[in-house]
Design brief:
mainly alpha; elongated
Length: 164
């Protein structure tokens, strides 16, 4: 399978993740808006922050794959701007591979944390929502991010070889 085909597939995955993140953010906005509106009448939604925290944590994780595929991360190139194209591509490949590894470890730890929350039947204080689903959602987003980062590292390595 060519790099272009992989890019197309992973970009579709990343866009799907970003759309899911958008829906999660809309949910957080809806809960916050409802709680503020009810609070104006002295009846805020009990536990609204619990829902918003879980939705925002998962949404952030689901936004990152598209950010990775578009190369939209913050880049500080003060020390590297004079490197040749091959050197920049090689450095980019190494840094993205490290990012893929770090994010994969985070996804793994989130999955273990989610399992522990499920196994111990941990719930939020007010609404008694199970914690595990927030961990599981974030682990899925981080796994997609790690796959995208590993692909972009591979793509950068191929670009470094072509620049030779």
């Amino acid at each position: 399978m060519s790099l272009a085909a992989w890019r197309a597939g992973l970009t579709r995955l990343a866009v799907g993740c970003a759309l899911l993140a958008g829906f999660l953010l809309l949910g957080a906005v809806a809960v916050t808006t409802a709680s503020v509106a009810r609070g104006a009448f002295g009846q805020p939604i009990l536990g609204d922050s619990e829902v918003v925290e879980m939705l925002l944590g998962a949404a952030i994780a689901f936004c990152m794959p598209l950010c990775e595929m578009k190369g939209a991360h913050v880049l500080v190139d003060f020390f590297t701007q004079k490197l040749p194209a091959r050197g920049l591509a090689g450095l980019d490949a190494v840094m993205r591979a490290i990012a893929a590894l770090v994010v994969a470890v985070l996804a793994w730890r989130l999955a273990i944390g989610g399992y522990n929350m499920w196994d111990r039947e941990r719930e939020t204080m007010f609404l008694l929502l199970p914690f595990w689903w927030g961990y599981a959602a974030a682990a899925l987003g981080m796994t997609a991010w790690s796959l995208c980062a590993a692909f972009v590292a591979t793509e950068s390595l191929a670009r470094a070889r072509r620049a030779a």
